[in-house]
Amino acid sequence: MPPAPLCPCSSGLRYRACCGRYHSGAAEAPDAEALMRSRYSAFALREVEYLWRTLHPEHPDRARPKDDFLREVRAQASALKYPRLQVLDRQLADVGGTAVVLFHAHVFEKGRDRSFVERSEFQHDGTGWRYLRGESRAPRELPAPPETLTLATFPRPG
């Protein structure tokens, strides 16, 4: 019997012991970084219901019809490959309850590099951590190599 697959979130753990338990609903991600990793894995594995469930109620996509969101994300995710994730920096929840994670998502479409670095914000909704918003940049738009960036050095709109 082949070993269970590794989790797409690049944790080095087997999927069932990592993001699989969040995708199945057996557990909630315990912190913002775990939620971000599980959302990357959900894109990689086309777990679109999970992506919907983990959107914060204030995220703009929540104002759209759920079926439209699911269809669009499913189509987008099926065209992409998600080979690697790098967490670059994180900040625990502030006084307002917002936690922040900076990550580099390695993404490819038909061999073309669609990778990006994103500064994502998450809030707990009383049930679990949820994706509130994000700002992303292509690596070529950054002032330094992605792996050297921190939350403090990630360029923000001025």
UniProtKB/TrEMBL annotation:
Where the record annotates domain YchJ-like middle NTF2-like, the positions are 31-134
Where in this protein does the record put region Disordered? 134-158
Q: Which domain of life is it from?
A: Bacteria
- One Pfam match, given by its short name, reads YchJ_M-like
Q: Which InterPro entries match?
A: NTF2-like_dom_sf, YchJ-like_M
Kindly provide the name given to this protein in its UniProt entry.
YchJ-like middle NTF2-like domain-containing protein
| Biological source species | Melittangium boletus DSM 14713
Lineage, broadest ranks: Bacteria, Pseudomonadati, Myxococcota, Myxococcia, Myxococcales
